[in-house]
């Protein structure tokens, strides 16, 4: 199974296909397609495997963009690659993007790919029936990740803090293995590693990202320089995203085979992840980019995540949000 560490330390898109989306096939002139390559990174998260579909079905070329789609076994390396300028765009969470911005990276969020709505889970051993039962227990989690963030949200709701539990810091794949090996009482992880964790007899999910709407959004993130100087290519990537979603809807079985192969999981396993990733339509994108005071708005979530980053020592000061959320490309999709 492919490793994807959703680490907070420090593009492309994700899709499984949910609500109706009308795709736009644009920017398809040969000049763009034969121009400078755009190198975009992606890694093991169910919502991002569809970019293998876009590549295999020639949808990048159809939309006039020359793409080098780069797979990263280590998600952390993809974040670092974008921050250092080694790639032009990356598939990453809002948490990781804000951490990079706090470190001085100049980035632009140009698309909301999805929200995690169940594929991030806190899984506990038999006998633990709720988050409140975690008091005094050992929990494996990769520190600084979105699953660490999810764990803190769940503990807070249960009127507990991180001091009430014993954190065992491990990379996500190792954390799932430690849980299955009965070395810890619980684990916080994301799909597909949740499937591994649930192999422990009697284990069950006691909290998931479905209970915290909007807390874990995934994005197409590009360098600020690319957004300013290569707008046509960024637009082509966003157009390809929506066309890929539409293609998957119309060719579901073939698409699932491609995505399951990329994720190194069975077709049935991949299908089980569908409900846990909510793919955003254009309207949901526009709503998320609009400033607001609810979990549905990116600026609201960014504020909460910034507090998490600072309080956990991942940044000395809150990141600057000015110019971070760039909705011009989504608005241009017809």
UniProtKB/TrEMBL annotation:
Gene: ssuA
GO CC annotations on file: membrane; periplasmic space
Pfam family, one: NMT1_2
Protein name: Sulfonate/nitrate/taurine ABC transporter periplasmic protein
Family: Belongs to the bacterial solute-binding protein SsuA/TauA family.
Signal peptide: 1-25
PANTHER family in the cross-refs: ALIPHATIC SULFONATES-BINDING PROTEIN-RELATED, TAURINE-BINDING PERIPLASMIC PROTEIN
Main location: periplasm
Domain of life, source organism: Bacteria
Gene3D superfamilies: Periplasmic binding protein-like II
Compartments it resides in: Periplasm
Statement: the UniProt record of this protein carries the keyword Signal: yes
Keywords, in A-Z order: Signal
PROSITE patterns xref list: PROKAR_LIPOPROTEIN (PS51257)
Transmembrane segments: none
Keyword Signal: yes
GO terms, molecular function: ATPase-coupled transmembrane transporter activity
CDD domains given in the database record: PBP2_SsuA_like_6
InterPro entries: ABC_SsuA_sub-bd
NCBIfam families: SsuA_fam
């Amino acid at each position: 199974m492919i490793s994807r560490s959703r680490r907070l330390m420090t593009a492309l898109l994700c899709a499984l296909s949910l609500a109706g989306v009308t795709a736009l096939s644009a920017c398809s002139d040969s000049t763009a397609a034969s121009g400078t390559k755009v190198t975009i990174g992606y890694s093991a998260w169910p919502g991002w495997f569809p970019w293998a579909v876009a590549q295999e079905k020639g949808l990048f070329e159809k939309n006039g963009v020359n793409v080098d789609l780069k797979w990263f076994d280590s998600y952390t390396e993809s974040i670092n690659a974008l921050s250092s300028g080694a790639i032009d765009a990356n598939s990453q969470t809002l948490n990781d993007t804000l951490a990079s911005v706090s470190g001085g990276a100049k980035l632009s969020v140009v698309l909301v790919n999805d929200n995690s709505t169940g594929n991030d889970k806190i899984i506990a051993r038999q006998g633990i029936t709720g988050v409140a039962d975690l008091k005094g227990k050992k929990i494996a989690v990769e520190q600084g990740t979105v699953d660490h963030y999810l764990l803190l949200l769940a503990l807070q709701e249960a009127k507990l803090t991180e001091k009430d539990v014993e954190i065992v810091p491990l990379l996500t794949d190792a954390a799932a293995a430690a849980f299955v090996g009965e070395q810890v009482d619980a684990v916080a992880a994301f799909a597909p590693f949740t499937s591994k964790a649930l192999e422990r007899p009697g284990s069950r999910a006691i909290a998931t990202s479905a209970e915290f709407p909007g807390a874990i959004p995934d994005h197409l993130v590009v360098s600020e320089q690319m957004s300013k100087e290569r707008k046509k290519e960024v637009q082509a990537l966003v157009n390809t995203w929506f066309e890929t979603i539409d293609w998957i809807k119309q060719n579901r079985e073939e698409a699932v085979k491609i995505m399951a192969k990329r994720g190194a999981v069975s077709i049935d396993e991949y299908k089980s992840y569908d409900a846990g990733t909510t793919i955003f339509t254009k309207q949901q994108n526009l709503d998320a980019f609009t400033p607001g005071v609810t979990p549905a708005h990116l600026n609201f979530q960014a504020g909460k995540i910034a507090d998490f980053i600072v309080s956990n020592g991942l940044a000395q000061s809150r990141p600057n949000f000015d110019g971070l959320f760039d909705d011009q490309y989504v608005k241009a999709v017809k």
